[in-house]
Amino acid sequence: MDKFVIKGPSKIKGDIRISGSKNAALPILAATLLFSKPVELKNVPNVRDIQTMLNLLRFFKKKIKISKNKNTIKIYNSKKIRTYLPYSISKTMRGSIICLGGLVSKYGKAISAYPGGCAIGTRPINYHLDALKKLGMKYEIKKGYIYATAKNGLKGNNIKFKKISVGATENSIIAASLAKGKTILKNCAIEPEIKDLTKFLSSAGANIKWIGKRTVQIIGVQKLRSINYTVMGDRIETGTMAIAAAITGGTLKIKGLDPKIINTELELLKKTGSIIKYGKNEIKIFGAKKIKNIKLIKTKEYPGFPTDLQAQFMTLLCKAEGRSVIAENIFENRFMHVLELQRLGAKILLKNNKAIIEGNSKFEGAELMSSDLRASVALVLAAMVAKGTSIIHRVYHLDRGYEKIEDKLRKVGARIKRVS
Ligand code: EPU
Fold first, then answer.
1. How far, in Å, CA of 314 to CA of 327, rounded?
2. Which ligand 1 atom is at minimum distance from the Cα of 330?
3. Ligand 1: which atom is nearest the Cα of residue 127?
4. Co-location of 323 and 390 in the same domain
5. Same domain membership, residue 272 and residue 179
6. How do strand 3-8 and strand 388-393 relate by DSSP bridges?
7. How do residues 203-232 score in pLDDT, each as one tens digit?
8. 250 with 211, same domain?
9. Which of 208, 230, 252 is the last residue of a domain?
10. Closest Cα to residue 18, out of 285, 255, 252, 260?
């Protein structure tokens, strides 16, 4: 199993181009199930979750061509599509459930393994199933599998999600794109990745219109046309790199994303003392010498502060001058990085869904364990400012969603190497 060896402290300086968004590319790849014609996707990050999704599409018998740099993917249909999603794949990536809507909508049936929980929480799929049922999908759960059918195809309906869910919104948008008639989805998640999915589907001929802040109208079409689409940049990677500059007191130009998309995060970084200059699809961030604390940060659905940056922000606040509090409101168990940060010297107290971060921590290098994607990258940030050597084990968690992160960070001055 690969590990990272990181020597600190280091200060970073230079330019970084961020990769395409994993969480936008995943539902877009799932949506290619709706197509009979080829689809070409550019700016797809070469990370493990994307490889898992491509393996799944291959398992469904789609044909896939990958460019030399691995970032352009062309997906072709084959005559013999398989509509079975095995446990062996779903257990490695819960997000594979977003294929259910596409399979049932296009092929009228699917057998899908029921996804299990994961390190950050139980992550049920009740909103996905309720919405697809309202679109006409019938299903039974037997021996850990969902047996789903829609013999005469799906039919549009009015659906209001009880709670905002990224995955359930994506599954329903994909399913409704080929359903008969009009679907109105209310109380949708409006993460930028969802807007990228609707932009992708609309450019292929789907009839999708956002008619309210969290309301989307979809009028089903019979088929989608072949397209070539460029996936948006990764906002969580952008935020992570901005925090790398802030925590090391470094200077970084980060290219590849419209800064308006991450306004909430950038405003918080400014509160900690960083200076930010805005450009077109880029920012330049100057980390402060003294990091200021923030009284309270609450994770919230977009446009609120993202749970996917909670661990990285917590690491930054460990180095701030006073006490900060972070409330995690999206996942019930997303504090696994806390114990590892404490190994380095962090003073953090957990109380229900809140982390009370004392600040002024002096980190000293230690051996650390990755537990999930964002927790692992938080440890990388911490190790970059810890005195001495840190070893981060199980970086395969990190490889799920960050493309060549060690190369990118090394180029701007971090002392990081991968050991196999
Ligand atoms: N939920 C339910 N029932 C459902 C669906 C969700 O109770 O049917 C609950 C979840 O348990 C959670 C909350 O609703 O407490 C929000 O879950 P959501 O469905 O919005 O999350 P997701 O679709 O499973 C995506 C991202 C996550 C990101 C969350 C929140 C992808 C592939 N995953 O997950 O990304 O944290 O939205 O923004 O897009 C990551 O990239 O590290 C990651 C975990």
1. 11
2. 15
3. 8
4. yes
5. no
6. antiparallel
7. 999 999 999 999 999 999 999 999 999 999
8. no
9. 230
10. 255
Domain containing residue 48:
22-230
pLDDT value, residue 19: 98
Amino acid at 339: L
Q: How far apart are CA 276 and CA 283, in angstroms?
A: 7
Whole-angstrom distance, CA of residue 285 vs CA of residue 278: 9
Predicted TM-score (pTM) of the model is 0.98
Regarding whether 15 and 47 lie in a shared domain, the answer is no
Residues 232-288: tens digit of each pLDDT: 999 999 999 999 999 999 999 999 999 999 999 999 999 999 999 999 999 999 999
Q: Domain count of the chain?
A: 2
Contact by Cβ (8 Å): 255, 238: no
**Eight-class DSSP state of 305:** B
pLDDT at 34: 98
C-alpha 78 – ligand 1 centre gap (Å) = 31
Q: Are residues 225 and 373 in the same domain?
A: no
Same domain, yes or no: 224 and 262: no
Q: For residue 19, give the nearest of 222, 236, 248 by alpha carbon.
A: 236
Taking CB atoms and a 6 Å cutoff, what residues make up the pocket around ligand 1?
Answer: 23, 26, 95, 121, 123-128, 163, 165-168, 189, 307-308, 330-331, 373-374, 401
pLDDT along the chain (420 residues), means of 10: 96 97 98 98 97 96 96 94 94 92 98 84 91 98 96 97 98 98 98 98 98 98 98 98 98 98 98 98 97 98 98 98 97 93 97 97 96 96 98 96 97 97
Last residue of a domain, one of 175, 197, 230: 230
Other beta carbons within 10 Å of 307: 19
Could you tell me if 186 and 41 lie in one domain?
Answer: yes
118 annotated active-site: yes
Question: Is the same domain home to 180 and 323?
Answer: no
Give the CATH number of the domain where residue 34 resides. 3.65.10.10
CA distances from 69 to 118, 187, 408, 412 (A): 31, 39, 16, 22
- SS3 of 308-367: the string is HHHHHHHHHHHCCCCCEEEECCCCCCCCCHHHHHHHHCCCEEEECCEEEECCCCCCECCE
Distance of CA 324 to the CA centre of its chain: 25
